[in-house]
Amino acid sequence: MQxxxxxxxxxxxxxxxxxxxxxxxxxxxxTVFAWRATMSQYTGLIAMGSMSVAMLLALRPRRPxxxxxxxxxxxxxxxxxxxxxxxxxxxHWLWVNAPKWAVGWGLLERPARAGAGGGQGQARFDSTLxxxxxxxxxxxxxxxEWAFYAAVVLIALALIRYFPYHWFYKSHRLLAxxxxxxxxxxxxxxxxxxxxxxxxxxxxVLLVAGTAxxxxxxxxxxxxxxxxxxxxxxxxxxxxxxxxxxxxxxPDWPGHKPGQFVFATFDRSEGAHPYTIASAWNPERPQLxxxxxxxxxxxxxLHEQLxxxxxxxxxxxxxxxxFDDGSERQIWVGAGIGITPFISRLDYMSLQAGGGxxxxxxxxxxxLFHSTAGVDHDxxxxxxxxxxxxxxxxxxxxxxxHGRLTGQHVRDEVPDWREASIxxxxxxxxxxxxxxxxxxxxxPVQRRFHHELFQMR
Length: 457
Prior knowledge:
Elements: H1 2-22, H2 32-57, H3 65-68, H4 71-104, H5 124-159, H6 165-172, H7 175-189, H8 198-218, E1 227-238, E2 243-249, E3 261-265, E4 273-276, E5 287-293, H9 297-305, E6 311-318, E7 329-335, H10 340-352, E8 365-372, H11 377-389, E9 393-398, H12 399-402, H13 407-413, E10 421-425, H14 428-440, H15 445-448, E11 449-451
Parallel strand pairs: 7-8, 7-10, 8-9, 10-11
Antiparallel strand pairs: 1-2, 1-6, 2-5, 3-4, 3-6
Helix pairs in contact: 1-2, 1-4, 2-4, 2-7, 2-8, 4-5, 5-7, 7-8, 10-11
């Protein structure tokens, strides 16, 4: 989490400082319209900078994933940048329009327009370019306004949790069109002097990169190099917990680490959904296993719709929730369907037992806590067998019998908890409560509390 916070604030501070270098006397503005001229430029630059970086992150780039802590963290940064772009776009719109409204209401007097021309000593090319840009102002303003309205609606819909995923999947792509219109708006209306300063150079790089990313999104080529075909080999439905276990043959898969996830597409109209992998990679038997909880309309219907032999598309692997912190003592907490990455790790540990090439530190001791509201005895029996085979100590907490799992429960069962790293996967509220609980007891949560943010919107 720290790295995505650093990335977020660094991007805003860098753009702000470069703008101040280009506009060092902005604070000397004495009239509303003078402030309007400078602040509309600043808010527009921040909005487009944030939107451009968010557009790049939408491509699911592999290179920054490790530094940012995984694709789940990258999507959290993508969300923050989208919200920031929304806020600064609204501020930009208000700075542009509010003074005009005040003039119409008789509260302000519009100043006389400055004369045309590029400024004394300016090159003829600049004057010609400025003249051409002036001819595009009306078009750019109109396109920018409508693109702003579209972006506000689309970003707002993306933030509404109960907006159906398949509609989110389809509508969110339209932001790329709005972004391209806003690029034209920005190029035409950005102060010409900025293009000769570092703020203009950085903005140009961001707009070009963002434009390329938008084209990739519109062509539906996101993650194209990471996609392979698979075929369902087996299905098992655990009715008591409404979970479907899918085993798929996937001969072209490059391999994965325990704890990583994929985007799987069963129905092109529904789009790709993220699912954590529930099995270790074995090249001698190229298969993936996933466990899908019925949490929405799509996932609740899968056990009725899928058939053995059916083809699907798999993209990945992604994520850095891979247990490889080198700690000799680990505590795992899997709540509900959050048990899935731990099942994958247990499978890996069983396969590697005695192989001598495991990434697991020698003598590592692990306690696994599984908190669940529903009970499926077959599923729990499989989990217990996997934990036993991997020499992992299992603690099952059933809400109706044991109450909700708390940090105190964990500390009571693991006396040397201060020496451990904690790996959590489950509901965000549960993670926050557990994190605060351990922080209050002096546990270094920033360094040793690992939490997968499995919310991709």
